[in-house]
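Practice problem 4.
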């Protein structure tokens, strides 16, 4: 993957930043999208390779399209897109207790944060007849987590999106896959109630959370040229929780 251009949305998140650190070591050119420009620049300074940071609201189509255009003007191509943006919303509630505005917010952000960047970069990938897309789903999208109805619904939607897109672009040398992690130690999970974390962790046969290093290793393979005959698929990272 040396000198390839990889765009990571949610580049300041635990998942996005972990992957960026791993790819930089492989001499990959990494573009990072997130909302906080100051933090993005500070993070980029800690990386030793070629980076390009852009601050934007990834749920706004115009901002996404403009940022993709600027990235193309800088490096001339985008070889892979990894979508890591996502929120949990309110948790540890029964479905009927979740406020409608919170439900709608989670659905909107989690789905649009995958769909809009995909839509912005796919024409260039079609033109170059090569591309790798990785959407971040969740084990909650496969099995459903009690107390997380909005999050589980949005992640199931991402899995469905991945299946459709994988079929639609298979003939262009483009793969579209998803990943379904169980609990990974990230800042997002640190904000969740202890009861919710315990509920999810107890379902994992390995009886532990996944690590950022384990996530980054699998993500690197999925977006590499080596992963060339798998598309529309959801890779598990679940410690044995899901086996299908």
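Answer key:
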């Amino acid at each position: 993957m040396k000198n390839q251009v990889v765009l990571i949305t949610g580049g300041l998140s635990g998942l996005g930043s972990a992957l960026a650190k791993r790819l930089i070591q492989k001499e990959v050119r990494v573009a990072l999208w997130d909302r906080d420009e100051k933090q993005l620049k500070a993070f980029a300074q800690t990386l030793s390779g070629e980076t390009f940071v852009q601050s934007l609201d990834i749920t706004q189509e115009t901002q996404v399209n403009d940022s993709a255009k600027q990235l193309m003007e800088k490096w001339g191509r985008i070889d892979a897109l990894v979508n890591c943006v996502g929120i949990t919303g309110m948790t540890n509630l029964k479905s009927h207790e979740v406020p409608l505005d919170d439900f709608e917010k989670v659905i909107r952000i989690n789905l649009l944060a995958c769909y809009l960047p995909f839509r912005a970069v796919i024409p260039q990938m079609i033109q170059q007849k090569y591309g790798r897309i990785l959407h971040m789903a969740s084990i909650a999208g496969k099995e459903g987590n009690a107390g997380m109805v909005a999050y589980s619904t949005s992640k199931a939607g991402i899995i469905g999106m991945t299946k459709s897109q994988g079929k639609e672009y298979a003939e262009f040398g483009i793969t579209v896959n998803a990943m379904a992690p169980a609990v990974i130690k990230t800042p997002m999970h640190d904000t969740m109630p202890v009861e919710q974390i315990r509920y999810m962790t107890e379902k994992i046969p390995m009886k532990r959370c996944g690590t950022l290093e384990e996530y980054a290793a699998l993500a690197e393979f999925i977006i590499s040229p080596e992963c060339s005959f798998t598309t529309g698929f959801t890779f598990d990272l679940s410690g044995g929780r899901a086996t299908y």
